[in-house]
Amino acid sequence: MAELLRNRRWTLKRRPNGIPVPDDFELVHDTIDPDALPPGHVLVRNMVTLCAPDQRNWMNEKVNFHPPMALGDTVSSPNVSRIVASTHPDYTPGMVSFTMGGWCDYALLDVAKLYVPLVPYPEGTDPIKAIGVLGMNQLAAYFGMVKVGEPKPGDLLVVSGAAGSTGSAAAQIGKIKGCTVVGIAGGAEKCAWLREECGLDDVIDYKAEDVAAVLAERYHNRIDIYFDNVGMPLLQAAFDNMAPNGRIALCGMLANYPGYGDMPGPSNFMRIVHGAIKMQGFIAVRWRDEIPAALAEIKGWIDAGLFKHREDVRDGLENLPAIFPELFTGGNRGTLLVRLADS
Ligand SMILES: NC(=O)c1ccc[n+]([C@@H]2O[C@H](COP(=O)([O-])OP(=O)(O)OC[C@H]3O[C@@H](n4cnc5c(N)ncnc54)[C@H](OP(=O)(O)O)[C@@H]3O)[C@@H](O)[C@H]2O)c1
After folding, report:
1. What is the reported pTM?
2. Which domain holds residue 222?
3. Within 6 Å (CB) of ligand 1, which residues are found?
């Protein structure tokens, strides 16, 4: 008989008011019996968790893509996890898989009830890479650019949140496709990284410059593609300068997530009609069947030195409530990951 596993999990104590604060969460200690799994379940040890801005939306009461978390629920999160026990025929102990395993050491998952299925990785996969440079943010950037942005050589692409995990990938995919790329990011260090390491053509520091004025002055009605990670008010600044037949790829609206679920959109909407502008939101998993080919292409770009990526890896489940809010204050330098176990 195996020993009971000691488990720690962060639960949602109250719904955050704006950017989450540590007091919105409560650490609960309990135990799990690995020999007493109900049928069709897997028990996983979470190894790495990805801090994703959308988690903030799941903390609201409103239904969105992800079912809202109930108060007292373990905080839901995308993880790389190792299966330690299973009563499901498709999954065996030792497998490493993508899971929505949550902010906890161990998670007991009812496979039939998962709203995001388990996605096992090939043996030997590096968990940091799997959820970092080859993770869902990079896939969102890939599909958002290729399927929605439809880049052509010579297009002018503007990307918000450009120094972040998704934004830096979208911007560099734009470069690979022959676009002139303008990034919008906060602070001198991030702007320098985009210019010097990622090879962007122009960078606007939204914390130091008036983005609407800069876009109107340098790129008036010339933006062919706007890849939006942040929503308003930067969405308005780009919207007002779209070129005829421009495409707006709505990837996320993270500047607006700390609100209560009401996401404002741009005004002067008739520009869409007169400019024949396409504005399309997307969720990367919509192109699920094309993920292996997309990952192969991204790997090829990494190997060719065309695709720079920063992983901002922190340590410790206990630190999650203090780390997660950094997504909304710009504290992260690249994909924000937290290591929950050594291997
Ligand atoms: N549609 C999909 O399938 C999909 C999948 C993954 C992610 N996403 C979306 O992609 C976006 C980026 O997510 P990520 O995980 O890659 O995060 P990230 O960009 O790595 O981190 C968030 C960054 O956003 C910037 N930021 C924070 N508040 C801001 C504000 N008020 N105005 C402008 N910038 C602000 C900060 O950088 P600065 O220091 O530059 O301010 C921060 O570092 C989110 O909207 C997310 O929901 C969508």
Report:
1. 0.96
2. 136-285
3. 52-54, 136-137, 140, 161, 163-167, 185-187, 190, 206, 229-230, 251-255, 282-284, 327-328, 330, 332, 335
